[in-house]
Description:
Blueprint lengths: L1 H23 L1 H5 L18 E6 L5 E7 L8 E5 L10 H9 L3 E5 L13 H17 L4 E6 L1 H12 L4 E5 L5 H8 L5 H4 L17 E6 L8 H9 L4 E6 L12 H21 L1
Parallel strand pairs: 3-4, 3-5, 5-6, 6-7, 7-8
Antiparallel strand pairs: 1-2, 2-4
Helix pairs in contact: 4-5
Amino acid sequence: MKILIAILAVGATLYAMVLLLAYVFQDRLIFPAIPLAQRPEEVGVGDMAVVSVRTRDGLDLLGWHKAPAALGKPTLLLFHGNGETVAWNGHIARALIDAGYGVFMAEYRGYGGNPGKPSEAGLYEDGRAAMDFLEAAGARVVLHGYSLGSGVAVQLATERRVEAVILAAPYTSIADIGGRLLPILPVRSMIRHPFDSFSKIGQIKAPLLIYHGTIDRVIPADHSERLLATASAPKKFIALEGADHVGLWNSGGDRAVLTFLEELSSLTSARAGD
């Protein structure tokens, strides 16, 4: 009996330590902020300008911007994943710019040389600052959020008028991801940054595109399927066969997005002609 009690005590102690470590270090897991700052010309988008936006809590954040080349084309506001910076999405910006669209690559606080510490509330403020910039310029905005950035896009789509919303490899919530990775822990009660897109997506009224790789090992595609089932907006889902979480754009995401944007343009033109 004493041996059993000792084993249980050791097990309880180890569990408590894991619980404490998971709680204390969750910010580093969710926001592995990369401070490295690069220039647009280093990643093939030298025609983009580095601009500064001010958040409502007083941070001056740098982002990359290029207005649309063609009259009437929307600007895509890109929100990247948690282990990236705007520079990692230079190839996406290049493809969109070459197709005539405007692009604003929003950089988060604590990332890419920006001041501040990332948090769920903070990233929402960063997104709002980027939207303020584009709205002041009279841009028609399409939101594009990848992975972590999908939660920012969903939040903004519930607050602002946008032309459309595009989600790449989105999650239902960070708590759902954590619960799958750490099933022995009470993740839902521990998470400080839930990013609960599942409870919000039904509020989106703009046309919605979701695309996801079928073999995504970071955020399984069933997250997208659940979001799609809950969404009430005109919606479309594209499963990219054989695509994983990384490299989604080059695995068919580019075709999915550009086709969706062309369809959106045709719909807008038809409405204008009515």
